[in-house]
Amino acid sequence: MIAAASFVLGFLVIGLAVLLTAMRGGPRGAREAMHTQSPGGRTTATGIIAGIAVIFGIGIPAAVLAANGDKDRSAKGGVKLTADQAHGRELFARNCSTCHTLAAAEASGRVGPNLDQLRPPKALVVNAIMLGRARGQGQMPAQLLVGKEADDVASFVAASAGH
């Protein structure tokens, strides 16, 4: 919502600038007006232009990032993720999404089992990551992830599968 409003506001400001330039007699009239202004007027105009540039260059992206900050900690289905589970979602997307289907990670792989239907507990996911699996269509390699990374992915899958 903020990004759309910023986009529209940006074009409104650009349109207003074009309109005011045209009312001053086009680019030549605007240039002549700038040269006949007092030094204080030129400084004020430069400050206003710099302020608008800062708002559009830093302020709007910062507002969009702040509004999207909450997005990283929630998954589809209204599941609130811990920091470790959010990290697990990133790892899942990088390492598992090509084979497995899991709506919370927006993954739609077709080789491995659909984890939304399977709804595996954390222990089973950790076991599958550590030992690998082979069931006809393909083979999940063993130790694709290890240690905390494997635990984070397993925690994410167990918390979000089927929701």
Description:
- The protein is mainly alpha-helical and about 160 residues long.
- The protein has 7 helices and 6 strands.
- Strand 1 and strand 2 form a beta hairpin.
- The longest helix is centred in the N-terminal third of the chain and has 30 residues, at about 40-70.
- About 15% of the residues are buried.
List the helices and strands and how they pair.
Layout: H1 2-23, H2 26-36, H3 39-68, E1 74-75, E2 79-80, H4 83-95, E3 101-102, E4 107-108, H5 115-118, H6 122-131, E5 133-134, E6 139-140, H7 147-160
Q: How many beta-strand elements? A: 6
Proportion of strand residues: 5-15%
Please report the distance between the alpha carbons of the first and last residues.
Answer: 26 Å
**Biggest beta sheet summary:** 2 strands, antiparallel
Tally of DSSP helical segments: 7
Q: How much is the radius of gyration in Å?
A: 27 Å
Averaged pLDDT, please? 81
Low-confidence stretches: none
If strands are numbered along the chain, what order do they take across the biggest sheet? 1-2
Helix/strand-derived category reads mainly alpha
Proportion of helical residues:
55-70%
**Helix-strand pattern:** HHHEEHEEHHEEH
| Spatial shape | rod-shaped
